[in-house]
Each structure stands twice: as structure tokens, then as C-alpha cells.
């Protein structure tokens, strides 16, 4: 399975100690574009999770060739999101990991399958890798400063069986 990730998923999961779930769920590893590496590791060097992302040998950086697609997407999205979507399209990814609503919409319009941090945590709960989803969601909001609507929070708990 080919999976491309944006920055927010990597930083969110690593901040709450769940980055390894990505490796477990996607044992072939994940791809990230250069802009995501810059955002997560180079510019985020002091931020929680940056070292974990840098040390993960199952995360591979890949340049994006479709510069025109990136330019078009950057009209509405940040550079990491634009490159993640362009790379996912370019490599024929099975899945792109995105959280921001506009980025998710743009990816879906291009025919890409999308999953976000909350969906990954629900999957981790279902797989038995997370014992308490509520604690993980709360940590995501408090430690990772992740914005999560009450509706999505409650839906995630229902889907996770809590």
C-alpha cells in the first residue's frame, strides 16, 4: 500500500506518543514530500515530534515532479498540503493522510482516498493498539494543540466503541 502523509498527522501522532502506529498500520512505510520534511523536521526542530519523525527510517522523503499541480493547489492550501496531494496523485497512492478540511476536499476532488489523525486513532483503537481513545483524543487537543470539533470528537468515540 502506498501512503503519503502531510505534516499535521506526523506531528500530532508523535506528540501523543503514537507515531509508531503508522509504522504498524503501514509496514511498507510512508512517503512524504520535501515540504512536509521541512515543516516537520527542519522548521519544527524544537517542536514536539520533530525528532521522532526525523528518526523514523520508515518515513521516506520523495520530491514532487508535478510542480504545476503544486502551484495550483497552493492557491488554497499550504505548501506541505499541496505537495502531499500532488505526490499522492503522482505516485498513485492508495491513501493520503491529511487533517485540514480544505486539503481533504481538494484531495477527494482529485479522486484520492483520505484519512486523518482522528481516523487513524479510531483504527488504532479498533486494532487494540490504543486502550483508551478518549485519552488519546484529549491528549491530541491539549498537548498537540489539535483543533477538533465536538461533533467529530463524539463521532470518533462512537466509532471506536467508547
CATH class categorisation of the largest domain = Alpha Beta
Shape: globular
* Rg for CA atoms: 15 Å
CATH topology of the largest domain, anyone? Rossmann fold
Got a strand count? 5
Give the domain tally.
2
Strand share of the residues?
5-15%
N-to-C order of helices and strands = EHHEHHEHHEHEHHH
Mean pLDDT: 93
Largest sheet: 3 strands, parallel
The count of helical stretches stands at 10
Question: Low-confidence runs (pLDDT<50, min 5 residues)?
Answer: none
End-to-end gap: 29 Å
The secondary structure category is mainly alpha
CATH superfamily assignment of the largest domain? 5'-nuclease
- What percentage of residues falls in helices of 4 or more residues? 40-55%
Main-sheet strand order equals 1-4-5
Give the CATH architecture of the largest domain: 3-Layer(aba) Sandwich
Condensed summary:
This protein has helices at 7-15, 20-25, 34-42, 50-55, 67-73, 79-91, 101-109, 117-126, 133-142, 150-159; strands at residues 3-5, 30-32, 59-61, 95-97, 114-115.
Could you describe the 3D structure shown?
The protein has 162 residues and is mostly helical. It has 2 domains: 3-116, 5'-nuclease (Rossmann fold, 3-Layer(aba) Sandwich), CATH 3.40.50.1010; 118-159, no CATH class. The chain contains 10 helices and 5 strands, in the order E-H-H-E-H-H-E-H-H-E-H-E-H-H-H. It has a 3-stranded parallel β-sheet with strand order 1-4-5. Helix 8 (117-126) runs parallel beside helix 10. The longest helix has 13 residues, at 79-91. It is globular, with a radius of gyration of 15 Å. The model has no long low-confidence stretch (mean pLDDT 93).
Amino acid at each position: 500500500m502506498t501512503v503519503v502523509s502531510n505534516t499535521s498527522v506526523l506531528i500530532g501522532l508523535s506528540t501523543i506518543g503514537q507515531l509508531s502506529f503508522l509504522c504498524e498500520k503501514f509496514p511498507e512505510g510512508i512517503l512524504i514530500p520535501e515540504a512536509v520534511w521541512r515543516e516537520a523536521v527542519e522548521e519544527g526542530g524544537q517542536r514536539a515530534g520533530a525528532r521522532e519523525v526525523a528518526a523514523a527510517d520508515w518515513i521516506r522523503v520523495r520530491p514532487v515532479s508535478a510542480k504545476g499541480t503544486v502551484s495550483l493547489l497552493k492557491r488554497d492550501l499550504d505548501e506541505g498540503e499541496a505537495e502531499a496531494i500532488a505526490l499522492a496523485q503522482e505516485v498513485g497512492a492508495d491513501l493520503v493522510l491529511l487533517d485540514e478540511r480544505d486539503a481533504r476536499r481538494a484531495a477527494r476532488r482529485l479522486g484520492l482516498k483520505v484519512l486523518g489523525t482522528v481516523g487513524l486513532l479510531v483504527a488504532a483503537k479498533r486494532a487494540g493498539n490504543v486502550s483508551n481513545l478518549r485519552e488519546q483524543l484529549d491528549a491530541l487537543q491539549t498537548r498537540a494543540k489539535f483543533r477538533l470539533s465536538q461533533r467529530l470528537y463524539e463521532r470518533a468515540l462512537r466509532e471506536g466503541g467508547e
